Request: fold
Amino acid sequence: MAQHHDHRHGHGHQHGRDEHHGHDHDDFDWNRLAPHLEAQAELFAPLYREVMDWLARDGAEPGLIVDAGSGPGVISGLFAEAFPGARVVAVDGAEPLLERAAARAARLGVGDRLSTLAGELPGVLGELEYPADLLWASNSLHHLGDQRAALAAFADSLAPGGTVAILESGLPARFLPRDLGFGRPGLQARIDGVESVWFSRMREELPGAVAEAEDWPALLAAAGLRHTGTRSFLRDVPAPLDADARAYVAGVLGRVRDAIGEGLDADDLATLDRLLDPDDEAGVHRRPDVFVLAAYTVHRAVKPR
Reply:
């Protein structure tokens, strides 16, 4: 597993992790993708800090935090900063991303409290030295074929009284006005439809895939956990964007073009190409009305003592 993604190729449903899921760990170029994963998580860092403030109200400060599907460790580092008394373990299947997580922790001055563990979820959680007081899974769960079994494994890795927090679903991100002034209005809504089909196919093709109603509180309860809250968090970066946020939007739309372009019609592809042209005044590199607006939903549950 690796972070944020953004599982639907970085467009409407990105959560700071995992567009790379479904690629073979041995031949995927993680170092090429890592800067995008880091830029995404950094752009959404204010949202993640709000999540952590919410989680901190749930009880005593955790001794051990596990970031299950950490990728390059941006959120792992934020956890180390938010909970200065905690140890953090970044868990991921992609060792090049964990190397970046360790380097980031050293730069942040939290390398003594942040360690890494390489292996595939959920089995690798059995290698933890201690049960976790807080297990965070940001869009990693839906890349596991049997989500119900995975949640049971998450619960098994928790200490009594420990919390699991899963970031799943939310609202598709928006970057562009409905009417761009060229092409057919409503481009992002049509991209959402293609991505939804892609996502369903991705789920169906996972090893051991089990179709499951996405009722996360019910699934957490089925794992023996007590659901203690669901909340959505907003990231609102209004126009005009700075250069880093513009580059992020361009990167997202470029991956949409590469990954699901065959699902769009010729007119929409032409619109995307114009949006991605750095020399076009109407493209996302230059137009003044590009923004970032997204909502991420977090579900929280506690293991009974």
User: Anything to note?
Assistant: The first helix runs from residue 30 to 43. Strands lie at 64-68, 87-92, 114-118, 132-138, 158-174, 226-237, 292-302. The two ends are 30 Å apart (CA to CA).
